[in-house]
Amino acid sequence: MTDVRARGQDEFSVGQWPDWSFWKDPSGGSSGRGRVAVAAAMASASLALTARAVGIAHHTGSGPLTSLVIGLLACYGIGCVLASWYGPTALRRERVVIVVAVFLLGAAPAVLLASPSYLTDLTFALSVGLMLLPLRRALLLGLGTVLGQIVWMRLARGEVAWAQVAVLVGVTAALGTVFALNFTIGHLRAAREQVRRLAVDQERARVARDMHDVLGHSLSTMTVKLGLTRRILESSGDVALAVGHVTELETMARTALSDVRATISDYRTLSLDNELAGARLALRAAGVRAELPAATDAVHPALREVFGYVVREAVTNVLRHSDAELCTVRVGPDWVEVTDNGSTRGGACAGNGLTGLTERLAAVSGTLEHGPAPGGGFRVLARGPASAVRSAAHHEADPT
């Protein structure tokens, strides 16, 4: 039974580790600017640590303890900047070590000076935690820090300096928001780049598929007619008949050129009636008897274009790969079938043409079947959505 509460891989979860993989983009660009922005934010925030160090030196005077605390604050500021720069590309275990290190450096002055007020400086360590750790762990770390400061103030002073607690919470939330926004913007940029690449790939696939459909059929027909013209000139020398075939070839070439231009512009529309007429001409030129439907009025209008591609590709395969003497095309409201009585063309079954047809039919929720025909030869059957549903229901009711 499927757990409806299961989250998808891309769905946000408070236990999910932040994915900063877009910062690893070798091309730099937006990812590099993001890293600089986050590091600059941490560097600017570290100025507060400098002011803190000056204040400590003013109140405690010079001495080994003061020098140690100021040194720890300096290491803390540098560590926060380095953590924001290198941490997002680190492994999970390394991230935990980084957060622990900056947290200990930030808490050390408060412990050495026995003053819970200095725990406010942990806001930078908590921001690093929000950046590198899952949200659940980062929030628990922040909650523990705030509660620890409140309890320590209550025990040490008898009262809580709520203003300092508010600074700890507010600055941590502000820096965490900056990181979250930068994280979101980075992923949006990466997603936009991926969508752009997918759009380019999809357009390339469309043009390649259309060019195959257009030129494959046209060139196959022209090759057959050129061969026929050559045989006429070699055998009988009937110039008038040869000129007639050459005239038809010229018309086909012009039509193919027009189709190529229209395909590139994505304006080309295909007619099932025109494809049947072209199939009749091509099969006759190849010496293959054609049995084609007299009309296509029964075919659903939404399926006529894709069925035109089916007829074109199937007839092209007959011309290219078959020694058939008969090619039959039958149509229905939501199906079209092309069969021939030639030898089975096993190697041609999984070519680019049939793959392209499968993609075209899938776009209209249809299916494509191809393989040896029951009585011999080869068979291509395309079904529209309605017949595909009925076929699936039939197979469920009668698996045999």
List keywords for this structure.
Heat Shock Protein 90; disordered N terminus; alpha+beta; 400 residues
Domain count: 2
* Overall body shape: rod-shaped
Biggest sheet features: 5 strands, mixed
Strand order of the largest sheet: 1-2-3-5-4
Radius of gyration: 37 Å
User: Class by helix and strand content?
Assistant: alpha+beta
Q: Helices and strands, in N-to-C order?
A: HHHHHHHHHEHEEHEEH
Work out the strand percent: 5-15%
Count up the helices.
12
Give the proportion of residues in helices.
Answer: 55-70%
- The count of β-strands is 5
Transmembrane segments: 36-59, 65-84, 96-115, 135-153, 165-185
GO molecular function: phosphorelay sensor kinase activity; protein dimerization activity
Organism: Streptomyces violaceoruber
InterPro entries: HATPase_C_sf, Sensor_HK_TwoCompSys, Sig_transdc_His_kin_sub3_dim/P
Describe the structure.
Keywords: Kinase, Membrane, Transferase, Transmembrane, Transmembrane helix, Two-component regulatory system. This is Two-component sensor histidine kinase. The chain crosses the membrane at residues 36-59, 65-84, 96-115, 135-153, 165-185. The chain is α+β, with helices and mostly antiparallel strands. It folds into two domains: 21-196, no CATH class; 287-400, Histidine kinase-like ATPase, C-terminal domain (Heat Shock Protein 90), CATH 3.30.565. 66% of the residues lie in helices and 7% in strands. The chain has helices spanning 30-45, 47-60, 64-86, 92-112, 123-132, 135-157, 162-235, 239-265, 272-285, 304-321, 352-363, 385-397, and strands at 289-291, 326-332, 335-340, 367-372, 378-383. Strands 1-2-3-5-4 form a five-stranded mixed sheet. A hairpin with a 5-residue loop joins strand 4 and strand 5 (378-383). Helix 1 (30-45) packs antiparallel against helix 3 (64-86) and helix 5 (123-132) runs antiparallel to helix 6 (135-157). The longest helix has 74 residues, at 162-235. It starts with 29 loop residues before the first helix and ends with a helix. Residues 1-12, 26-30 and 392-400 have low confidence and may be disordered.
